[in-house]
Design a protein that fits this description.
The chain is an alpha+beta fold and 175 residues long. It has one domain. Helices cover 21% and strands 35% of the residues. It has five helices and eight strands. Strands 1, 2, 3, 4, 5, 6, 7 and 8 form an eight-stranded mixed beta sheet that branches. Strand 7 (137-151) and strand 8 form a beta hairpin. The longest helix has 10 residues, at 78-87. The protein is globular. The mean pLDDT is 90.
């Protein structure tokens, strides 16, 4: 997808951060999650490798709806909602840098097929630009989050959602 303006950089501790250089999803009061869903649908049937584990993670047809309409998404507001919406631009790179793989058994009957072999959680970090009132770039805010990946009955791993989006405290990144 050539229209994405995304890169991977390393912080002073040599940890990777996905830099998302554009804010596509702006809002006055509320994000239009249908636009986010439509954007994510461009990834369907793609797959990406997590560098740390060599796991291949697929993007299934369920991701756009889950990403935009999950219980988690319904409850986030403000800067975290804006961050999750705009993080959609960097999903391939976030999968690439995902780390700290943690397994969780599936406990919900409704996921008996799509997560028959459980769930994996990976840590990710991404940064979004902050602009002044003239549209000039001031800095990047860094966020940490969890990529939730389901292990399907067919044996494949599928990206399911991005959850627990939190702005990192501390000094924002300068460009």
């Amino acid at each position: 997808m050539k229209d994405r303006n995304v890169s991977i950089v390393r912080d002073t501790d040599d940890k990777p951060i996905v830099m998302i250089h554009d804010i596509l999803f702006k809002w006055k009061r509320q994000i239009n999650w249908e636009d986010v869903e439509e954007y994510i649908s461009r990834y369907i049937d793609e797959f990406y490798e997590i560098a740390a584990t060599k796991d291949l993670v697929y993007i299934g047809k369920d991701l756009p709806d889950e990403y935009a309409n999950s219980q988690y998404t319904e409850h986030i507001r403000g800067v975290n909602a804006k961050a999750k919406a705009n993080a959609a631009q960097g999903l391939p790179e976030m999968l690439e840098i995902a780390s700290n793989k943690q397994y969780e058994r599936n406990n919900k009957l409704k996921h008996s097929k799509d997560a028959a072999f459980g769930w994996y959680r990976y840590n990710i970090r991404f940064a979004l630009p902050v602009y002044d009132e003239l549209g000039e770039l001031m800095w990047y805010n860094v966020f940490q989050s969890i990529m939730l990946i389901r292990h399907d009955k067919n044996g494949k791993l599928y990206l399911y959602d991005v959850i627990d989006v939190k702005k990192e405290p501390g000094i924002p990144l300068k460009q």
